[in-house]
Design a protein that fits this description.
six-stranded parallel beta sheet
């Protein structure tokens, strides 16, 4: 067996991939391997790939090539994840020097991949991985927040998406398993738990469970601890009266929803095979705004879907102005050969996609700037995360409306009353800059506090042991 024991992880794509990387890391650490931050020091370099879009696949290939070029001469590269599962032959031909390949449902085989002297692969029929029982997982996020993946695969059949082909059908964790992970995180001092799945609202539906997500949330809220519970991602057709009621009643569920809607024109929504209409989307947004004051809604919008006319794009622009949403991820339609949309007539040129993309971005920037001003002069509970990366004269944190890694932050220009990072503080917002807010700390929130890292010491890396591309 190879004598070295230093490992380096690169995790690409979504937070669901990050959880899989944490499982592989946990297995290796339990077996006595040592994680290192610098890939040049590693004896084994593991890349967990994303194969969702062409751009993501290119990013994965670039990362693999960089590690091959810069690794120690005797170090071994192991490639895992979605791209191996769906595009295995291409990636094996492109990188013959890779030591081992693991499919996206085979994360438990990472120890075998590392320990074998013979190059090879394990790509089973399992397309996605869910952590079961006592399989170890090494949390790589800062101590104060962590993800729980409650389901894998997807029951939707959106015309532009190949995730069901990559990840397979919906598979939900047992409620007891989710609750066990949740309790362990809270016992270890986690302040924010982020639930993730391709669609949270489908949780338990393959088991014919009614109101599965609602019942799961109700069980989690029985815990007496102070915490934030954040929901990623919840499609508009899955936002039930019961879920809205739970958000309304218990402030520990962040008044924040990532609600992918993709478009607002009925003909485009129908062509996308989405389950909601323009009227239903607007009704959902209106109901959320009315019943949950201050709720922050994040969404994703796509431009350039086949057949999108100038009038339908203008309808989307008008919607963004008339029903302002706090955070919007904007994407250009990517032609994936195995997606049904690849065969549709009316494919849009890249030049038109880019022009529409830029116009929608500019429109949303104006909306975000206006929305940010509404926080000025108000006080919010903020989870203080550490020093600002540019200077220790500033600190950074997030209020309930900001998800880690994808949204803005609260920049603290007066943090004299902060005694520990990873804790909740009351912050007065004094200014807004784009998606970021500026504020000063008033003092700790009245919630019970646990032992915290001293603010005089720099915080640990936000991705200890796993590099996120």
């Amino acid at each position: 067996m190879f004598a070295g024991n230093k490992i380096h992880f690169t995790s690409l794509g979504c937070a669901r991939n990050l959880v899989d990387s944490e499982v592989m890391l946990g297995i290796l650490l339990k077996a006595g391997y040592e994680a290192v931050e610098q890939h040049e020091e590693a004896d084994f370099l593991v890349v967990n790939t994303c194969g969702f879009l062409a751009a993501a696949r290119q990013e994965s290939c670039d990362a693999i090539q960089r590690l091959i070029d810069e690794k120690k001469p005797d170090a071994k590269v192991i490639v895992a994840g979605c791209m191996v599962q769906k595009f295995g032959e291409e990636i094996r031909n492109q990188f013959p020097g890779v030591h081992y390949f693991l499919g996206s449902g085979d994360m438990e085989k990472i120890l075998e991949a590392v320990q074998t002297d013979v190059p090879g692969q394990t790509v089973s029929a399992a397309k996605s991985y869910l952590q079961w029982g006592e399989i170890p997982r090494q949390i790589s996020t800062p101590k104060h927040y962590a993800y729980i993946k409650i389901a894998e695969g997807c029951a939707k059949q959106c015309a532009f998406c190949i995730i069901p082909k990559i990840k397979g059908p919906l598979r939900s964790k047992p409620v007891e398993q989710v609750l066990k992970e949740f309790r362990i995180l809270l016992e270890h001092g986690t302040k924010e738990v982020i639930l993730i799945a391709q669609d949270l609202g489908d949780f338990g539906k393959e088991r014919r469970e009614k109101e599965g997500l609602e019942q799961l949330l109700a069980e989690m809220l029985k815990m007496p601890n102070p915490f934030w519970l954040r929901l990623l991602y919840l499609y508009p057709d899955e936002i039930t009266e019961g879920i809205i009621g739970l958000i309304e009643k218990d402030p520990r569920i962040c008044r924040y929803l990532d609600m992918p809607i993709q478009h607002i024109s009925d003909p485009i929504l129908k062509a996308m095979r989405r389950k909601t209409s323009r009227e239903q989307i607007i009704q959902t947004i209106t109901s959320l705004r009315k019943r949950v004051p201050g709720i922050v809604i994040r969404t994703s919008l796509m431009v350039g879907f086949p057949g999108e006319t100038d009038e339908q794009f203008e309808e989307l622009l008008t919607f963004v102005r008339d029903y302002p949403l706090d955070n919007v991820g904007i994407f250009k339609f990517s032609l994936e050969e195995e997606a049904p949309a690849a065969k549709l007539a009316g494919q849009i040129s890249e030049e038109v996609k880019e022009e529409r993309y830029q116009r929608l971005c500019r429109t949303q920037e104006k909306v975000a700037k206006k929305l940010g001003k509404r926080y000025v002069g108000k006080r919010h509970t903020v989870l203080i995360e550490g020093y600002h990366p540019e200077t220790q004269l500033l600190m950074r944190g997030r209020f309930y409306g900001q998800c880690p890694e994808i949204d803005g932050q609260v920049i603290i220009n007066d943090g004299r009353k902060v005694t520990g990072f990873g804790e909740f503080y009351e912050v007065e917002i004094t200014d807004a800059m784009g998606y970021d807010l500026i504020g000063k700390v008033i003092g700790p929130t009245p919630q019970p506090r646990q032992q915290a890292e001293q603010a005089a010491s720099p915080p640990s890396s936000s991705r200890l042991n796993i590099h996120v591309g």
